[in-house]
Inverse folding.
């Protein structure tokens, strides 16, 4: 940390920070966040729980596997059904916490060598748990991702213990929804400690994600959520034939699902290949182009915080349709700037998609409201400036 004089003889203004991030270095969300501090000129180190390479300059990159994150996964499409993902997650919930103590020895060594001003774990399981167990007195900030409390924390007593321990050790908390700040206190976070409420990836880069110059005519629906245990893609695919019965011209674009076995099975079973495209994971610029060519973005989740892809779709003028969750209601008011549904019911989702495709007035109204919401609450540059001030606040308290 470099201190500069204020002009009155005092030295307190924090200019450059030495930061150690504990994160999955493969994650676009984590990289988006970390990159800001690299570009800001801070001295940035990454302890990645998964093997990765990065395309931006770091002061240091260490591999700190935990919860079997060092094990090689099979090729894409080999075990990607919802049942397989759920089973893998359940096994990791039970066995993952048993690896934390040993993994913490490695992270503790990295921390002692780097001597950062602040450590930031970019989600609670298992990066926050690892950082809390490796705590050596350096201020620790923990991020809560959308399902850390609602899905992972209560899965068994070890996950409950390590979630609570992480929140007791952390000197600051970042969350992407007010619900998780409230729940953090129920899990042991001291209300007197500072909190930061901004999107998990730092916000929307509006120079990339922006609305088209004219309204979209094509009835295209985008599902950007990929294949996760808490995303009800089974419901999404079952809704497609119901939508096609009303709008046979509709097209459905599924990002990060190319080659996924579960998706391919649903498409074959429902005979919807002519209306459905499965795409690989795409760069941000390409994702923005896809959003700008669509009328609707769908997020069929049963556990969530603030989905970054949903905000990006909203910024590009898509009408958002999402699972009716407390966290999503912090962003979407049904019938005004989007629609909320029971994400376990294909008919509910199908009705909402049809309404989104046929109600041009709602789409136009929502696009204007969402543009203002993104500018005011989710602009990347503004949010990350808040994050830097938050770091400085946590450091100064220590």
């Amino acid at each position: 940390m470099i201190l500069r004089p204020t002009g009155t003889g005092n030295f307190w203004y924090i200019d450059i920070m030495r930061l150690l991030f504990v994160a999955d270095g493969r994650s676009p969300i984590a990289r988006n966040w970390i990159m800001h501090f690299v570009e800001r000129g801070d001295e940035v180190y990454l302890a990645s729980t998964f093997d990765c390479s990065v395309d931006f300059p770091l002061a240091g990159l260490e591999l700190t596997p935990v919860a079997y994150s060092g094990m090689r996964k099979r090729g894409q499409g080999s075990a990607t059904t919802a049942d397989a993902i759920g089973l893998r997650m359940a096994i990791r919930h039970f066995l993952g916490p048993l690896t934390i103590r040993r993994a913490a020895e490695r992270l503790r060594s990295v921390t002692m060598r780097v001597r950062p001003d602040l450590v930031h774990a970019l989600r609670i399981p298992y990066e926050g748990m690892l950082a809390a167990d490796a705590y050596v007195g350096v201020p620790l900030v923990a991020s809560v991702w959308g399902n850390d409390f609602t899905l992972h924390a209560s899965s068994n007593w070890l996950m409950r213990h390590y979630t609570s321990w992480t929140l007791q050790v952390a000197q600051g908390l970042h969350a992407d929804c007010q619900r998780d700040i409230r729940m953090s206190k129920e899990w042991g976070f001291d209300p007197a400690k500072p909190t930061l409420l901004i999107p998990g990836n730092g916000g929307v880069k509006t120079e990339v994600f922006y609305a088209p110059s004219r309204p979209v005519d094509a009835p295209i629906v985008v599902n950007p959520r990929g294949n996760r245990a808490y995303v009800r893609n089974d419901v999404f695919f079952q809704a497609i034939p119901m939508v096609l019965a009303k709008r046979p011209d509709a097209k459905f674009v599924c990002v990060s699902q190319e080659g996924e076995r579960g998706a391919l099975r649903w498409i074959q079973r429902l005979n919807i290949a002519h209306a459905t495209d499965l795409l690989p994971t795409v760069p941000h610029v390409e994702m923005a182009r896809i959003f700008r060519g669509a009328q609707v973005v769908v997020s069929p989740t049963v556990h969530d915080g603030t989905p970054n892809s949903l905000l990006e779709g909203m910024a590009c003028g898509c009408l958002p349709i999402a699972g009716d969750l407390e966290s999503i209601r912090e962003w979407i008011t049904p019938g005004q700037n989007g629609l909320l549904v029971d994400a376990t019911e294909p008919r509910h989702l199908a009705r909402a998609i049809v309404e989104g495709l046929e109600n041009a007035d709602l789409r136009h109204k929502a696009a204007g409201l969402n543009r203002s919401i993104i500018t005011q609450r989710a602009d990347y540059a503004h949010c990350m400036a808040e994050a830097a001030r938050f770091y400085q606040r946590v450091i100064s308290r220590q």
